[in-house]
Amino acid sequence: MPNDEQHEEKNRNEEEKNTAPLAESEPTVPADAIEGMEAKPEIAAAKPEVATNEPAVEAEEPELVRAAYEHPLPIRITHWVNAISLFVMVTSGLRIFRAFPSFGPKIPEKVLLDVPKSLTLGGWLGGALQWHFTFMWFFAASGLFYVAYQVVSGHYRTMLFTPRDIPGVWPMTRYYFFFGPKPPATGQYNPLQKLAYTSAIGFGALSLLTGIVLYKPAQFSWLAFLFGGFHLTRVWHFAAMCGFLAFIPGHLIMVLLHGWSNFYSMLSGWKREPEYQE
Amino acid sequence: MISRLEDKELKRKSRRQLLKLAPVAALGVFAFPKVSDRLVAAGVRFSDWASGEVFRSRHPAPTFSDSEVAPFAKFPYNGYDVLDPQVDLEKWTLTVEGDVQHPGEYTLAQIKALPKINQNTRHICVEGWDVIGSFGGARISDFLKLVGANTSARFLEVECVDDYYESIDMASVLHPQSLLCYEMYGQPLDRKHGAPLRLQMPTKLGYKQAKYLDTFRVTNILKPGKTGYWEDQGYSWFGGL
After folding, report:
1. B41–A65 C-beta distance less than 8 A
2. 20 to 30 Å CA-CA from B231: which of A39, A194, A229, A268?
3. Closest partner residue to A106 among B59, B129, B230, by Cβ?
4. What residues make up the domain containing A97?
5. What is the DSSP letter of A62?
6. Which of B149, B168, B150 is nearest to B158 (CA)?
7. pTM score of the predicted model
8. Is the separation of the CB atoms in B14 and A264 below 8 Å?
9. Contact B234 A63 (CB under 8 A)
């Protein structure tokens, strides 16, 4: 599936055919070329962290770097619009929840938890609702556009958790949490990442659908039925937020652990020296 | 897909792609309170417009069996100021004005003479709680017919004995479940629930369903800053469910 980046790259290659003969967009490197390069020990020594898990280092042009255009522009835009919207939806949502912090009846009201005001946005119920009713559009639009783009472009294959990823979950969990050996990188995302990202999309879908019911329970009464009626829908809406609140800290910790070049890839699209081969 | 390129080239490509992300930074305007106040108010107006578009004037809100109705004691009293504004029930009349053929004072007996509707519907508060209650009253649409209202006007303005005020889009007013409610649980409306007459509209949030009704005005124009007690402080004007 050609994208703007690849076009750009081709044009660039034609322009600079003489100056950069090896900068080609061809994604695969022939196996024999890799083997041939393996015999250059001085380069392996110069970049030990690369040489340990992969033999391919450019022989003739040592200054060439491996890079992958991981995040197409629509993904990056929706990622950041979603990040901002999610922050607003959660903080204003918690302020709305403060107005009736319970899932039971109004009489008698059993306060479930007292959300500190400092974690909330909007100042009062009306203000929080204004933020919520404004950013729900950004949240919905970025989410729907993201999913549509993933499906149409086929890019979803890099991140969608499928049954084939199940066997890889435990080795990755062992590596992350119990000092197990590091499983080899087979693609842009490991099975645990795929599980996390796919779940996040699920939380998004749940918060959107339950949000529609809470906002328009009379117009979408058939949808309320799906969630066990209006009253229970409020629980599901809250549960979707809890899903996000479970996802976000893990996501941020992993971003911190993987350093700047990984983080920068969600801004620029390009990942320098990715771990995987193909 | 792995590419191999010069460091300089990778940096150049990365920078170009980074710049393409710049429009997202526009959302940063929300970080400035003076701007964001107006933007989120506009967001609510947009949401209200969309709410009006998806509103189906004949689509009923869910109704419930008697066994699903919450006991009367568990139906909350809610008010913005005093729960009992000491309405003189003997002398009470509903004043009707604006775009109507027969303006004037209407008694509770005249309203009770209209076909009576009983319905068990869910009362939903903007705060998040909800309760299924039992209500009885006359359709607002029947009353508007009685007073010869121009139902192609856009709004019904409502004033209350306790200085609360509301305005409601005509489509919601004419909805078959929108009642002039004078009974709850088969008993005359009690003072704290808005005696002698309140709005009861299962397609609207609680704050739209004004209590202790005093004046009805059919109009095409709402005065800015006088669209509803809570709405003027930031609540959604449509407030529809």
Report:
1. no
2. A229
3. B129
4. 73-269
5. T
6. B168
7. 0.84
8. yes
9. no
